[in-house]
Amino acid sequence: MARYIKQGHIRNPSSGAVIVGATVTVYLAGTSTLTTIYSVASGGTAVSGSMVITNANGYYSFYVDDANYNEYQLFDLTVTGTGLTSKTFPNISIVDDSDHVDLTAYLPSGFVTDGSVDYNSYIATAFTTAETLGKRLFVPSGTWQFSTVKRTTAEIFGESSNKSILYNSGTGDGLDLGGASYYSLYENFQVKGNASSRDGITLYTTAGDNPAYMQFDNVYSTYNGRHGLYHRMAWATKYNGCKFHYNAGLGAYLITPSGDAGTHNGVSFVQSEMRWNGGT
Predict the structure, then answer these.
(1) Largest CB tally within 10 Å, which of 74, 148, 162, 244?
(2) Closest Cα partner for 255 from 247, 267, 264, 242?
(3) How far apart are CA 138 and CA 147, in angstroms?
């Protein structure tokens, strides 16, 4: 079960100025039946009157839970506010039936794309939602800062390895994929660390994990405080067009602990680079 966010800004149609204190009331499409909505991504109680109010930036948001409604349910949004004629926007789809979750759908109003703000808890919610729904996580163009390791079973894809950047500003690992499923696919994004962080991407970090047959296409791991990639076990994993640059340790560190002989069978790096790394 998961909740889906609906958010936006209410503006004066003539001037374009945001409207503070406007109300957005949510109904089941084509009816006068109020919808069950929530103000938070998990937990909490339903919003009284199915109505939310825009803040000082004219922004509103609410969540719909797929425990209450399926993807076929549409909604009507009735908006009222100073300088507005009450208007209903019909047949809005909120419970998403797409194959992915967009990371930016879980960021706060007015989010920045340059990596200057730590959106750790918001990004964690996006990861958790993707996992819960069994969907891929989409990382749009931009630098998205987080500060604690993101351990996830969700597949991840971006627009471009040079543009879709997950920036770890913390002191731990960046992306922990040790619990991923067989045949998981990751493509077209970058994990960027800092001098105090650890590994950019890690596989097999917790006892009992055993990912394998994974595929990384055009995934970069850069500027991490230790290794760009820490790979243990995860046999038959393929790295295609990947780059591991400017890491304090090794670009890619493949470790075979005692008793794990043969666990790198079938691991391949095709047109991948490990350059400008510290090497220890």
Answers:
(1) 244
(2) 264
(3) 19
pLDDT at 130: 86
| Percent of residues, the chain, with pLDDT higher than 70 | 95
What's the Cα-to-Cα distance from 221 to each of 29, 39, 120, 145, 275, rounded to whole Å?
46, 36, 19, 15, 11
Please tell me the pTM assigned to this model.
Answer: 0.72
In the block, residue with structure tokens 């917790």: 206
Of 166, 155, 168, the closest CA to residue 225 belongs to 168
Burial of 115 (0-12, 13-18, 19+ CB in 10 A): middle
The DSSP code sequence of 2-40 is -EEEEEEE-B-TTT--B-TT-EEEEEETTSSPBP--BSS
Is a pLDDT exceeding 70 seen at residue 260?
no
pLDDT of residue 204 exceeding 80, the answer is: no
Residues 6+ apart with CB under 8 A from 252: 227, 228, 229, 231, 239, 244, 269, 272, 274
Please answer whether residues 204 and 233 qualify as being in contact, where contact means their C-beta atoms are separated by less than 8 angstroms.
yes
Q: Residue 280 — very low, low, confident or very high, per pLDDT cuts 50/70/90?
A: low
Q: Which helix (H) or strand (E) holds 75?
A: strand 74-80
Q: What's the pLDDT tens digit per position in 139-161?
A: 999 999 999 999 888 999 999 99
Within 10 angstroms of residue 131's Cβ, the number of other Cβ atoms is 18
Reported as half-sphere exposure (CB side, CA atoms, 13 A), residue 14 has a value of 4
Q: Which two tokens stand for residue 113?
A: 């794309």
Count of residues for the chain? Answer: 280
- pLDDT for residue 208 is more than 70: no
Output the CA torsion 178→265→224→279 (10° steps).
Answer: 150
What's the CA gap between 86 and 102, in Å, rounded?
31
As a whole number, the mean pLDDT across the chain is: 90
